[in-house]
Amino acid sequence: MLVFRKFLRDIPAVIGAAIVLLVVFLAIFGPWIAPYPQDASASHLLRRLRPPSLDFPFGTDNLGRDIFSRVILGARGALKVSLVVVGLAMAIGVPLGLIAGYNRGWLSEAIMRVTDVFLALPQLILALALAQLMGPSVESAMLALSLTYWPFFTRIVHAETARLRNALFVDALQGIGAGTPRILFLHILPNALSPIIVRATIGLGFTILVAAVLGFLGMGATPPDPDWGLAVAQSRTYLPNAWWFATFPGLAILLAVLGFNLLGDGLRDLVDPRLRRSR
Amino acid sequence: MTTMLQLRDLSVSLGGRKRWLRADIPPVRAVRGVSLTLAPGEILGVVGESGCGKTTLGRTILGLQRESGGEILLDGATVSGLDPRAARAARGAIHYVHQDAGAALDPWWNIGRTLEEALVIQGVASAEERRARIDEVLAAVGLDATARPRYPHEFSGGQLRRVTLARILALRPRIVVLDEPTSGLDMSVQAMVLTLLRDLQRRYGLSYIFISHDLSVVRRFCHNVAIMYLGRVVEQAPAAEIFSNPRHPYTRALLAASPSLEPENRPPAAVPQGEPPSAARLPPGCAFSPRCAHAVAACKTQDPPLTQQGTHATACWRWQELATQLAPVA
Amino acid sequence: MAVPVLAVEGLRLAIRGDEGEARILDHVSFSVAQGEILGIVGESGCGKSTLIRAILGILPRGARIGAGEIRFEGENLLAFSEAELDRTVRGSRISFIPQDPYLALNPLFTVGAQLLESMRRHLPGTPREHREQLTKILRRVQLPDAELALDRYPHQFSGGQRQRLLIAAALACRPKLVIADEPTTALDVTTQQQILVLLRELVDDMGLSMLFVTHDLGVVAELCDRVGVIYAGQSVENGPARHLLRAPMHPYTAALLACHPDRSDDFVGIPGSVPSPLRAPPGCRFAPRCAQAQPACTLRDPALRNAAPGHAVDCILYDAQDGGR
């Protein structure tokens, strides 16, 4: 496999892929791996704010819960939020971009102007306002983030489609009588896939970060969920003495975001049809 | 001779756009009043330099570009003046082969799927029949079934031309518009492609509209030749006639300028100075007059019509005078 | 006989890449005399562009010269350091006309800014003198409004005019040798003819030498004094243009000429394809496609032998009759 060999030579991308795989693994098997899976909700007031030790590698939090377990358990929530958000944003943004890029009339203009308006709004502020409106919960945070992230996909897909619609192979397809849906979804979309995948991968990391910020501001996950952002928010009152309380959930956020970004960058070079081989 | 395809006074304007609160962009008159006919089995060469409108003409014949004036008749029925989708449907017997064969294929699709897609679009429902037709056309263009799972980037330039030919052959065309089918190919590959085109033409009884700038190839390959300059046909005749007895000063200049293995046998004619102006800024009168060594005052005010004399048509005010003045070509 | 301006002898060159060692040039030899235009003819993949890079000393990484010499005015360029090449040869005594005039000029800068740059580096004199010299050359290459041209931007010129600008740029530092890489391929026939006529005049008037790389035999017939034919990185035949095109000796040259529409009605072509330099056949690389191949062809070391005065061929058919025929 030429693609795979080429990918393995890109060390940052391999590191990114390893981190992403780890996050995915933890998200799936977290409850079976975490040493204290019941600490997702239980509290043990007798062992509050213990520093890292052999029993509690990342220490314990203000309610005596094992931070190591909660960091592991938090992966599922973080990944779920980011997958849903990016999935929804793509479901809205990609078709709009395709239509706007292929069409040349007022429809294209209208879609792109609306996109511009959404892009002009600061994402976090809009998400905060929406979350406030719908009441703080993970679901409202996800909806708010999806509604603010789709314009990125529209912009990218619009640019790619506008470029590809003038490609000779599209002309040739029109020549043999191919209809617009066929051209758009079977030919232009796969050719525009590379920047979409890159943007989606980086978007996954970015959403983890913004979801954590929303959690931190009390607009996302609600206690006692094992959310990384929420944990950092709760730790503030105990700083700087209980440094481990903020540090390990914070590192989890950092690492996950970094992983997705490195992977996204690495994928950019890979999604190239010329690396396809029939044999 | 029966006529299969006829163009009557065809004009095409490109690009013009009205803009809101901004100056309008005037359209470019890429094709101006072209009349041509194509008989079954005929190879018609359309020759001219870049920007002369030959590619636009080809795309308009196909129906990918909308005509702004004139008529196109296929088998005696008018197929012009329709919206693009209907126009393309009415001209299903006409197909087009792009100049850049590599770019005309979707890089993500292997050759087998690409060929099959064309048949699916055309409504060939039976998988059996699609398979048989693909095998047939692959063999006809000199490729075999091993080409099916391969991707465009795995083929050489000459092979890609074969693939694009196979794709349209599968659709059973009667007329094929070939846009610069040999440009960018090495001499040995070009010869193979031309041989293939000639074989296919005979085997399937095709007619070609052969768009090219290479006079050496056109001379050997085409039955009739139309020379275009800035959107107009300036001279048209059977190939043997036009190369031995060119009348229009532009045709003479092209012949004089085109590289030949025997430069000393070439007609002595002045190579025109400068380069063709843009079609967006057409000179008044005969469009060639600013570069023509024989232009007189009348040439700069009135555009000469294409006048037919036997099989030979010329659009020049002075061709009869010039024919006696200038040495005939060997 | 005078020392040739450029002599390439037995050049072997390989480039190591992802998929192994590509033996791109395998025994290329030719020479260019003072005041002569030598056409280098070959199909795509024959190593033409690598050859140009080797002469200009701009080989890609991983390239290794296995054997041979490139002598320019008697000095072996392969022995020159990068700095010496840059200071004394490239852009000054040897200059280059690129293939595509549309890509060769930066659209953001005036033509003058780009063309005067190399004069400033290689020629003595003040910027004002350079400007005057360049304007004179622009007039010589028949650029309209030569006086104003230097302050214009590339998009204000047509394709043919841009090619004239690049020719002027190549002549600005009074080179001994000009290497032209298919300079007319992107142009229309009438413009091409104008440029060919101009190049011939310039070579004759200024006593230049020119290496004209092309795949178009018709252009060679129009322009060149002598021709070197290269197949898959091997020099197969060198000779006077007129004679070589009329009576080719090497089977490859003959087959190539037979493909030209001026020579044949039935477009025969050459069966097979040019071998990849990664998997080049041993001995004569044309042998697998050659109608007159013999078993011994694959054992042969490539070597050009004189088969007629000034006409050298590398083919087993001519090995026996050295100097004769």
Question: Which key terms come to mind for this protein?
Answer:
A: 279 residues; mainly alpha; 0% strand; C: 325 residues; alpha/beta; Rossmann fold; eight-stranded mixed β-sheet; 10 helices
Q: How many strand segments of chain B?
A: 12
Q: What would the principal axes of the Cα set say about the shape of chain C?
A: globular
Looking at CATH, the homologous superfamily of one domain in chain B is P-loop containing nucleotide triphosphate hydrolases
The CA-CA distance between the termini of chain C, in Å, is: 24 Å
- The rounded Rg of chain B comes to 21 Å
Would you write up a description of this structure?
The complex is a heterotrimer of chains A (279), B (330) and C (325). Chain A is mainly alpha-helical and 279 residues long. Helices cover 72% and strands 0% of the residues of chain A. Chain A has helices spanning 2-8, 11-33, 67-102, 106-120, 123-134, 138-164, 168-175, 180-191, 193-216, 228-235, 243-270. In chain A, helix 3 runs parallel beside helix 6, helix 3 (67-102) packs across helix 9 (193-216) and helix 9 runs antiparallel to helix 11 (243-270). Chain A is elongated. The N and C termini of chain A lie close together (9 Å). The model of chain A has no long low-confidence stretch (mean pLDDT 83). The model of chain B has no long low-confidence stretch (mean pLDDT 87). In chain B, the strands form two sheets. Chain B has an eight-stranded mixed beta sheet with strand order 6-7-8-3-9-10-12-11, sandwiched between helices. Chain B is an alpha/beta fold and 330 residues long. Chain B has a domain at 5-13 and 29-247: Rossmann fold (3-Layer(aba) Sandwich). In chain B, 50% of the residues are buried. Chain B is 31% helix and 21% strand. Chain B has helices at residues 54-62, 84-90, 111-121, 127-140, 157-169, 187-204, 215-221, 239-244, 249-257, 319-325, and strands at 5-14, 28-38, 43-47, 69-74, 77-78, 94-97, 175-179, 207-212, 224-229, 232-238, 307-309, 312-314. The longest helix of chain B has 18 residues, at 187-204. An eight-stranded mixed beta sheet of chain C has the order 6-7-8-3-9-10-12-11, with helices on both faces. In chain C, strands 2-1-4-5 form a four-stranded antiparallel beta sheet, with helices on one face. Chain C is globular, with a radius of gyration of 20 Å. Chain C is 31% helix and 24% strand. Chain C has 325 residues and is an alpha/beta fold. In chain C, helix 3 runs parallel beside helix 6 and helix 6 packs parallel to helix 7. Chain C has ten helices and twelve strands. In chain C, a hairpin with a 2-residue loop joins strand 9 and strand 10 (234-240). Classes of the chains: A mainly alpha (279), B alpha/beta (330), C alpha/beta (325). Chains in contact: A-B, B-C. Chains B and C meet through helix 6, helix 7 and helix 9 of B and helix 6, helix 7, helix 8 and helix 10 of C.
